[in-house]
Amino acid sequence: MLRKPIWQRTYILPTLVAVVSGVGLIFALLGDGIWDALSWLAVGLPVAIAAWVWWQATSIRAKAR
Amino acid sequence: MTNSSLRKWAWVHKWSSLVSTIFLLMLCITGLPLIFHHEIDDLLHDSAHPAEVAPGTQPVSLDQVLQNVRERYPGKVVQFLSWDDENPGVLFLSINDSVSADPMTNQFARFDANTGNFLDEPDFNGRFTMIMYRLHTDMYAGLPGKLFLGLMGLFFVAAIVSGIVIYGPFMRKLKFGAIRVNRTRAVRWLDWHNFLGIVVIAWTLVVGATGVVNTWADLVVKVWQFTQLSEMLGPGRDRPVPTKLASVEDAMQLARSKLPDMEPQTVAFPGTIFAGRAHYVIFFKGNTPLTSRLLKPVVIDGETGAFTDMQDMPWFVTTLLISKPLHFGDYGGMTLKVIWAILDVITIIILVTGLYLWIARRRVPAEQPPELVLPSVERSHA
What we know:
The complex is a heterodimer. Chain A is an all-alpha fold. Helix content of chain A is 85%, strand content 0%. Chain A is flat, with a radius of gyration of 17 Å. The mean pLDDT of chain A is 87. By secondary structure, chain B is α+β, with helices and mostly antiparallel strands. Chain B is built from twelve helices and eight strands. Chain B has an eight-stranded antiparallel β-sheet. The longest helix of chain B is centred in the first third of the chain and has 33 residues. Classes of the chains: A mainly alpha, B alpha+beta. The interface between A and B is large, with 38 and 38 residues.
């Protein structure tokens, strides 16, 4: 059985993160207040994901010891 | 993708990274304090504060400010007068021996916009933030230094793009964000490099590309002078610098009446690089986060004070002006600056793990973890 094309599997989540954080970079240019807050959430998304992955990785390592 | 094209992309990723990594590390490290340059300057350097005035107070005439400048700096001339974006009520004066002197040698003085009184003479040269800024922009090597760093930025963009391409084959058996925590350091760091690299690509691409555009600023200004500025000055562009200047206050008020929805940002005096020989050029900015970064030049005759022309900036200047906030991250408050700093640190981790992986891959093949070897793409579709 043929697998799905590669981009559908490996690239789908990174593309979503890139689009959200890329659009977020523009949000803060559009206005103040709510636009700034939306921008923080969107540009901060990669930071939040990285923090979550780091937390997961360290807790798995701690259990393995 | 075939195995041979994967090998080519991996080659691009390796060499574009190796050529630029040391400079990118320098840029990330010097860029980190620059995100907070305003806060650091406030902390390290005292500055005089403008007088408190009742809201709605009419600022003093610019002619009076210039008179005060002349009295304090006899024999000197003003090249530029700017309204300080970060400190309302403060005027920033760039002063030199002549209008045609190199602006790099300008001295600076701040005056109170409401009272016209002298505030202080900030000296940026010895400042920590200035040293970081010079290392970050031209490594004290002027235009060649800027263009060199721009080239390194282009290699960085090539490394990101080729990194995206080879991410897929490397990750085909792994989930997004998977870190094989119980494996050797080389495998763990490969996973971190791949994950962090792909999760921040929008930011690294934007900051990398806008950084490259910023290195072309001097060239963009030159092109603007020879095209739009020359055209706006019209047939009067070759007149000599007037011996007696028309009132700068009247020039500013006339320009302002043409652009009621905008604020004056900088006055370039006749004979300076941003003006005509016989004309003032007054740059106006809008009042939203986006339009406050865009400038609109108004040309006023420096001898008669008559309105000469005004135009929107051409696309290549607008691109440069938009590139600045997108590179500096100074357009969304302190929270955005902190996010910018974290993303900068993540980029440093990507650079360091990438360098480590290159060293690990140089070991003899038998000692190499198989995960570091280029995966075979064709087999994955079988």
